Automatic annotation (TrEMBL):
Record key words, sorted: Flavoprotein, FMN, Oxidoreductase
Domain FMN hydroxy acid dehydrogenase: 11-375
Documented EC number(s): 1.1.3.46
Coiled coil segments of this chain: none
Record-linked SUPFAM superfamilies: FMN-linked oxidoreductases (SSF51395)
Assigned protein family: Belongs to the FMN-dependent alpha-hydroxy acid dehydrogenase family.
GO molecular function: oxidoreductase activity
Keyword set includes Lyase: no
Transmembrane segments: none
UniProt keyword Oxidoreductase, yes or no: yes
Main enzyme class: oxidoreductase
UniProt-recorded name of the protein: 4-hydroxymandelate oxidase
Amino acid sequence: MSDAVVTRQFDVPPGVVAVEDYEPFARERLSPEAYAYYSGGAADEITIGWNRAAFERLKLRPRVLADFARGGGTGLDLFGQHFEHPILMAPTAHHGLALPEAEIASVIGAGGARAGMVVSTEADVTLEEIAGVARHSAAPLWFQLYIQHDRGFTADLLRRAEAAGYGALVVTVDAPVHALRNREQRAGYRAPKLSQHANLRGLHTRHVAEAALGESLMFRGFLDVAARWEDIAWLRGLTRLPILLKGILAPEDAELALRHGADGLIVSNHGGRVLDTVPASLEALPGVVRQVAGRVPVLMDGGVRRGTDVLKALALGAAAVLVGRPCLYGLAVAGPAGVAHVLHLLRCELEIAMALTGCARLADISPGVIWRDEA
Ligand SMILES: Cc1cc2nc3c(=O)[nH]c(=O)nc-3n(C[C@H](O)[C@H](O)[C@H](O)COP(=O)(O)O)c2cc1C
Ligand SMILES: CCCCCCC(=O)C(=O)O
């Protein structure tokens, strides 16, 4: 994509009234390989199911006759930036599989819904082109960084993101190796070559010898150049941008993250796409929130499909949530309009859930909105 425009008209199909309604339409429109890549997870996809089950298990505690005469709202400030609501578009790779306009369409959609967007290192459009479009929109833009084996190249990526005006750096730390993606393998999905990654042009491929039968794959050079804690401290020294670490589940890692200079955390299991049978993000959230004890904002993602899910995550201590697959499905089905609609639906549903639990503002959302069964 070199000319950053979206000129086509997109329509939301009739009957699409909730985020999950997009999925069957997206499945029809995507190639089987792309659908496998977007929808799939690691190995047996157990964690994907747990991400949803954790939300479904929690019951809400309604409150009646609350006084909303003084108004209310969903606005919040994070890292000095204002967000109209706490629902961000998660970083996801390769929007070009959904639509030729790729991330250009996504950023227009996110802007339409006044939602923050986190742009993936593995976007199909350069981070500069995306930021160029976002300049005209109300949506804050953050950049997701995969630390590359070439640290010089990584530092250049960071400088490019700073120069393009991104407001924060989200460093994804939960995927140092290629995950086991059996659904992708079965569907014949092939990830684009490094040379085809818009943001990684010029990065040389690092060849690691294939493991022969009976040899170790992981421990013969594959992990030598993987990111370590010292890389976080290194990044911290390179930039003034707030740094969030994405992919934290264990409270000990949350503590280490703060010790190495993280300004925020994203509790995430990568949408169940990296290590299968790790717990649901929502289950891991309270432990991380307890450990962090208010020192930095904690965000979460994984399985958010309803406004009530957003409310539950905030009740357990998240400052905001990120949404992955539903935005991709919205993009595949209705371009920028679909992305905006997905994010707008979630915001509207959150507002309804707040009204029915007596919360006028995000600050009113407390663990008290969760129903606790009598012992
Ligand atoms: C197709 C796809 C691509 C993704 N690519 C990235 C990526 O490039 N960087 C990253 O940090 N996370 C990536 N993720 C993970 C998301 O940021 C997020 O953690 C996850 O999608 C949240 O779960 P949900 O899809 O259930 O909302 C990807 C997820 C999907 C579905
Ligand atoms: C080493 C992991 C690369 C994955 C890139 C895209 C991604 O995050 C995904 O979930 O897919």
